[in-house]
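User: I need a structural model of DUF2516 family protein from Saccharopolyspora rosea for a docking pre-check later this week. Nothing fancy, just the predicted structure tokens so I can convert them on my end. Input:
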Amino acid sequence: MAALNWAYMPVYVWILRIIWLAGIPVGLFAFVHAALQRSEAFTAVDKLTKIAWLGITGAAAVVLLLAMDGPFTIIWIAALVASLVYIVDVRPKVKDVQGKSW
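Assistant: Understood. Predicted structure tokens for DUF2516 family protein:
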């Protein structure tokens, strides 16, 4: 089996790897942020419970850490989308109801 020559990978592979590497801290941040919030804040803003968001963001963080390419690409993209949904939709509302700055 010939060694994989990294210099000749198509551009889309490099773009996907960069997105994947950038997605790892995003997934970890979403999980840590969800873990540090009060449970009542999630139900107060009419979102899923804290436990549900911990499960979603935790699973997303694990997938982002473990799955890189091949058939796992679609899985880590879905995990990144789940983390981004938390950060863009849930986090601002939870933050507002608690009066927190971060």
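Before docking, keep this in mind: The two ends are 50 Å apart (CA to CA).
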